[in-house]
Amino acid sequence: MPGLGIGTLAYDIRIRRVGVVMEECGTHYALRPPHGGREWDAPADDVRPATDADRISSALAEANEISRRGRL
Prior knowledge:
Strands 4-3-2-1-5 form a 5-stranded antiparallel β-sheet. It has one helix spanning 52-71, and strands at residues 9-12, 17-25, 28-32, 40-43, 47-49. It has one domain. The protein has 72 residues and is of the alpha+beta class. The termini are far apart. 28% of the residues lie in helices and 35% in strands.
């Protein structure tokens, strides 16, 4: 998908995850979680700009994961 610039919040529909575009690598994007973490590659056909709903869902999932780790 053209137009996703570096720093754009994007949604990887394949793994249902929001990431910041770090690099465009031909037919793939390098994405990183918004608050840091390990980058992953996503095929350009599976990436679109993140919607408000995507951002909220991602933030909720991250908060739940942090909460779960705190209880272990």
